[in-house]
Amino acid sequence: MSAALVMRASKRFGDRDALVDARLEVAAGTVHAVVGENGAGKSTLLKIVYGLVRADRGQLAIGQRCDLARHGVAAAQALGVGMVHQHGMLVPTLTLAENAALGHEPVRRGLLDLAAARRDLARAAARLEQSLDPDACAGALSVGEQQRAEIVMVVARAQKLLILDEPTALLAPGEVDRLLALLRRIAGDGCAVVLVSHKLDEVAEVADAITVLRAGRTVAELARGVATREVARAMVGGEPPPTGAPPPLPPADAAVVLMVRGLAVHDLSGAATLRPGAGSAGGLRQVSFEVRAGEVVGIAGVEGNGQRELVQAVVGLVPAAAGRITLGGVDMTHATVAARRAAGLAHVAEDRHHHGLVLDATVADNVMLGRLDEVARGLTIDRTRVRTLAERALADLDVRPADPSLAARALSGGNQQKLVVARELGRAAVRAVVAAQPTRGVDLAAQARIHDRLRAAAAAGAAVLVISADLDELFALCHRVAVLHRGAIAGELAGDALRAADARATLGAWMVGAA
Amino acid sequence: MMDAVAAVVAFVAALATVTFVEMVVRITVPYLLAALGGAITERAGLVDLALEAKLLFGAFTAAAIAHDTGSIALAIAGAAVAGAAVGAVQALWAIRLGADQIVTGVALNLAAYGLTRYLLQVMYGQGSNSPRIDGIGAKVWSSPLTWLALVLTAVAIVMIARTRLGLRVRAVGERPDATAAAGVSVAGTRLAAVLVGSAIAGVGGAQLSLVVNGFVAEMSSGRGYVALAAVIMGGWRPAWVALVCLGFGAAEAVQVRMQSAGTGLPPELVRLLPYLLALVLLATLRGRGRAPAALGRGA
Amino acid sequence: APATRAAPAPDAVTIGLVFDVGGRDDKSFNDAAWRGLEWARRDFGVELLVIEPSDGADREAALRQLAARGVDLVIGVGFIFSADLEKLARRFPTVAFAGVDFSPSEGVAVPVNLAGLRFREHEGSFVVGAIAGLTTRTKVVGFVGGMKIPLIRKFEAGYIAGVRHVCPDCRVKSAYAGTEPKAFADPMLGQELAGAQFDDGADIIYHASGKTGAGVLAAAEARHKLAIGVDSDQFHEAPCCVLTSMIKRVDVAVHQVVADVVAGRFRGGLRELGLAEDGVGFVADDHNRRLLPPAVVARARALAAEVVAGTIVVPSQ
Amino acid sequence: MTPSGVDRGGDGARFAELRAAAVALLAAMAAGSLLIILAGASPLEVWRTLVARTFGDAYGAGQVVFRATPLVLTGLAVAVPLRAGLFNIGAEGQMIAAAMCCAVVGAALPAATPALLALPVAMAAAAVAGGAVGAATGALRAYRGAHEVIVAILLNAIIAGVALWLGNQWLFVGEATRTASVVEGARFAELGITGSSASSSVVVALVAAAAVGWLQTRSTIGFRWRMIGGGPDAALAAGISVARDRVSAMAAAGALAGLAGAHFVLGHKHAFEEGLGRGVGFLGVAVALLAQGRAAAIVVSAVLFAALSQGGLGVAELVPKELVDVLQAVVVLVAAATLGRTTSVGGGAR
Ligand SMILES: Nc1ncnc2c1ncn2[C@@H]1O[C@H](COP(=O)(O)OP(=O)(O)OP(=O)(O)O)[C@@H](O)[C@H]1O
Ligand SMILES: Nc1ncnc2c1ncn2[C@@H]1O[C@H](COP(=O)(O)OP(=O)(O)OP(=O)(O)O)[C@@H](O)[C@H]1O
Ligand SMILES: [Mg+2]
Ligand SMILES: [Mg+2]
After folding, report:
1. What is the number of other CB atoms lying within 10 angstroms of the CB of residue D125?
2. Nearest C-alpha in C relative to B21
3. C99 touches C74 (CB < 8 A)
């Protein structure tokens, strides 16, 4: 079998090695998985292939030998390479057809030939048995829809080598299966497929070969059929941390701390402002639930089904269109964020870069943020108290480096997330926790710590609400799991039903509205 | 009361004349071209606070060339080049050097005020105006700038909406990372947008000096800032921006007519009409448009 | 002119002058002051130091700098220097000061080392107003001012009185370009303001608006109407269309005060220059003969004589 | 590169900034030398004269102090909102409104009012008037989504017009375009540096700089401003009222610009005068940006710009004075290129 890709590459960012002579070989007509912990260098390696990042040293052959120093996106595309990126790469204000055309615009008589772009995209979608509206504004689509559209666009152009960087992170279980089947079909047609994923069972299911990266080096090249445990060991270079179980069930008569009744929230996707009249994902309609002291309740669902609206309404960032929210029995429906926080609400934001941290401020400032009451003496800030608080927060979740004067931006993603969790859960008198995607993009060790901290909060009597797209996370944390679909609760599993063998399938079905 | 209403009706009716339309056109052209140029630059993600500098250098260059060659066409072309030259500095600073775009714009305006005066001194030995030139004068329908402005408006609208460069400009101002991932050069697209936009703004400057047959120091008189306001009020969409500029031009023309008609209102306050109108609109019409997401964020 | 930049020679009398907004070569007010200085240099061989400040903060500092460096006479061109000159004259009692268009503070005496040179612009404006009133065919004439400030109001008031005096049923349209000093440097707007008045029936427009006036002249040129220049003879700015100019002999005033200093007979106090002193006047020469009939010139001269004689009192506001 | 005004901290960063400032000066001198040669003069002589006429004698130094005083205040008026993610280009209008109010109040006081009462009252009038204009700008941004840059530009024009109208209508005395003088008690004493205009209002500027420095680094309100500038969404999620603090930052800025107006009225002209302080508000932008928004650095930066302005007069007989305008622009441009981003803009309507 001929090789579609042969490469070695080294790359430094500042004084940090992202890749140290990392190696990757992909045979034509196969599905090849690349795995590794956060920051292992997976994305960097593949961006080098796609020409988006320039390697410092190495060799690259995509069918033919490429000059690494002059390699670029256009050159890679010309060689038949396509890449679906880890973070969506659609321009939200353009239509899907315009996005598809970007970079190779069809032109007629000096003007853009949008009709041709539309036709091309529709044809590509039909070939993959997907339906999409070429005139829809990308930003008005849900994240899942955007990703499907991106896959269609890229697959249409990638003749030789198709790269997908964590394409399944946002998909429901059923959708994942369909995507994997599609990838097999594409490989069957002779195009090599490179797949990055953190879900080792997926990898085991679909991949013909696996390359394992650790700290920028290729540490293993495995063939099909290797046990998942073996792969995990190669990834972390030792035994992977165990996944925990939910904390002990609170007594049945524990007080209801957080209660949501008939909550409705307008759509936040911004579709309306991007293009008036464009289809919108729909916001939140009529959601009711309650969380008791000591209880951990999970909200599962495919991204864009109202999770964001739910979280922001509960913490007070967006107004409720209808319904009621109470905290410890007090009506908080129209209370300010500050009032809710004063009443003991903690919030681990979904998007740490946006709602969680001020990236250019120091770690100490970020700890102070939201805990100003604890450090203020009149108008003055008590700087010794700030330092103590910050050091305590850093120690609490083992944030590294434990330097309060560092800019938050200089922390790795996982450590940033630990910082947010430490700040929020370390406040005095936490009565309720809203944790949105608390471990997204965070590696196994940090994930374990964050989960432990959430369990500890529940054990200490807080009501914990976890919103996550990751079912494994919810199984590891929650007493009850409800599924949000199209802005409403599609179903809920608790107790034995949640532990049953078919729980995953049931939740997955609810997530895609197939129940 | 009825008298007042009748007076207002009569005043408005009196506006519907060819000369009023001509006045609106003359006043609008510099706003229009500066704002269209600004819209293109900003759509590519660069804050364009340097419109004042582009107008002023455009006006100066047009006057200098008209003085030396007597050719209006060359003068206009020179104004475009002068605008583009300011844009080139702006692009170098913002794209290559990663400089703060607001600071760059403020500094370029400062430089324009000083440098045009300085050049007047050096070239003509006088710091406040150029020698008299044979410009275009007050004529409107036979002025090449009137028609050029019309053509450039159409060009700007079509360019943004319907050309390859326009699509790339729209993309790069919104998601430069995604644009790069699509194989488009972010820096190249931005440079092209800034140069085109700045050249258009420079032509707007030519209107200032050619209509009054000479360059006068600081004759842009804050028009570049008003043009930037128009860019924002027009939601960064060229057609809307053009309409807003027309509104500005009309408001200013009404102000002029009100003074001539003798309303009895103090001229100091009548003069503020366009500004008050803009302020009220800004406060009431909660921004219709969205700023390009990558605006001001550097490369 | 390199001579203006030479360092002061120790023995020569040195004159320092600070221009108003607009600066030298404004073809108007500052220009006239500059001509007076050059004239004085030719006559007396004095050294000159001139500064063109760019904004408000600079003006006082420029005067102060000249005074602090010990020039013999410091001249501030423009009413805006008045308060600064009063203060500096007290601060530097050994330096002679002169203010063109000086307006004294109320209730305090003018310092003895400060000569306030004032012009009765309303008188000159009265005469050109009369010329406009006699020449207009439409019985509508116009006035364009830069900024509405008391000084410019003087021009406007005298002009209106002059028009009315010879033509009681004539109408005068007035407009101002703006509310900041840049209103004296916006020819684009000047041309629209004038254009609107022409379109509303005016056939002659008088301006007192600095370089904004370039637009007024351009508007007259474009419409084949007439304009009246200000401060200096502005005929050559638009030879087709400048009916006359209200000249203000800033040059004479400046030359005189320099002569006083050179001769050692400088005295402070207010010095008012009107029609009687030839401090203001109008232009009637070979250039504008084509536009200005001898009968009108004769009548204007007669009116000027009446003003000088005191039989006509021209309002200044 | 640091977006927004959030402190980077670290000695390395400070050193880099110092070096950047030095490079900016050198580049400005290089560009300036070219222009000087173009005008047929000798660069060496011009630079020598420029230094001699500013720091070289007591008069020049006094003038630099005098000119730096309002620049410190308008620089602070730009810096405070800069940290909060707002660009205040309205110092000019805030200053004019404040100066007029200050002059009216200062003149209306009983003639015998002691300085201890008159000065604070007149200064408070200026701060309140400037603060009100600033607050209005901030409120339009915070609650109506109107871009503060545009609002400020419009307000600058509107305030200039209204001030002139008020003056013509009621306030100007006699033929002048100045208001009645403020009472004796409401005047800052001249420092008496050999004929220079420097007055004790420089103390106000220094106290203001110290106060802003304290606010920025030690106070809760300064912390909130920093946070809403660095990450408005995170600040909102942490319970900070972003809208209210945007208004407070702009109000504080307006009050500072107002004190610059008070400097001109109480420390120099002793009345409001048309054209007073014109340009100082805009120059404050350059002062603040060069200083990266830091209070202590603003004092230094203000002195630099003041020296350039004053030096421009000093060399006026050698080269056209416009040279220094260009030099100031070049300093800012080069600083912008070497310092990276100092402001954060979010574009228009949100
Ligand atoms: N643009 C960049 N600037 C600086 N450092 C970078 C940049 N991109 C990547 N890195 C660093 O390079 C290393 C490898 O990153 P990369 O994104 O390739 O990891 P990954 O294996 O894809 O991780 P993940 O599973 O989180 O996606 C990380 O340490 C990261 O911090
Ligand atoms: N913008 C930046 N400024 C300074 N340092 C940075 C920056 N980006 C990344 N780093 C450095 O790179 C390191 C790795 O960052 P990155 O987020 O890729 O880590 P990671 O390996 O993915 O870790 P994690 O698994 O916790 O996400 C950080 O610890 C930090 O030291
Ligand atoms: Mg990755
Ligand atoms: Mg990471």
Report:
1. 25
2. C196
3. no
Same domain (yes/no): A54, A185:
yes
* DSSP calls for A23-70: EEEEETT-EEEEE-STTSSHHHHHHHHHTSS--SEEEEEESEEE-GGG
Determine, yes or no, domain membership for A246.
no
| This prediction's pTM | 0.88
B126 close to C (CB below 8 A): yes
Of the bound ligands, which one is closest to the alpha carbon of residue A34?
1
ipTM metric: 0.86
CB-closest option in C23, C52, C188 to B219 = C188
* Cβ atoms within 10 Å of C158's Cβ, excluding its own: 28
CATH number, domain of A434, equals 3.40.50.300
**Residue C46 · residue C15 · CB < 8 Å:** yes
CB contacts of C176 in chain D (<8 Å) are none
Number of Cβ pairs < 8 A linking chain A and chain B: 67
Domain range enclosing A362: 352-428
Q: Whose CA is nearest to atom 2 of ligand 2?
A: A410
Please tell me the total count of domains within chain A: 3
Tens-level pLDDT at each residue, chain C (317 residues): 333 434 444 568 999 999 887 667 666 678 889 999 999 999 999 998 888 776 656 778 889 888 988 899 999 998 888 888 998 999 899 999 999 999 888 777 889 999 999 999 999 999 999 999 999 999 999 999 999 998 899 999 999 999 999 999 999 999 999 988 888 889 999 999 999 999 999 999 999 998 899 999 999 998 999 999 998 899 988 899 999 999 999 999 999 999 999 999 999 999 999 999 999 999 999 999 999 999 999 999 999 999 999 999 999 88
Domain B19-284 has CATH 1.10.3470: yes
A185 and A46 in a single domain? The answer is yes
Contact partners for chain B, using 3 or more CB pairs closer than 8 A, are A, C, D
Q: Are A211 and A74 found together in one domain?
A: yes
Closest CA to A440 of A333, A339, A348: A348
The maximal CA–CA distance of chain C, rounded, in angstroms, is 62
Q: Final residue of a domain: which of A398, A428, A458?
A: A428
CB contact (8 A) between residue D4 and residue A355 = no
Interface test with B, best of A43, A48, A91 (most B CBs within 10 A): A91
Do A470 and A407 share a structural domain? no
CB contact under 8 A, C211 and B129: yes
Judge: C185–B268 Cβ closer than 8 Å, yes or no.
Answer: no
Neighbouring-strand partners of residue C100 = C77, C117
- In-domain check, residue A130: yes
The residues, any chain, with a CB within 8 Å of residue A400's CB and separated by 6 or more, are A415
**Domain-embedded: residue A247:** no
CA–centroid distance, residue C300 to ligand 4 (Å): 89
D8 to A360: CB separation less than 8 angstroms, yes or no: yes
The residue among A201, A236, A271 that closes a domain is A236
Q: Is residue A249 part of a domain?
A: no
Asked whether residue A73 falls in the same domain as residue A130, the answer is yes
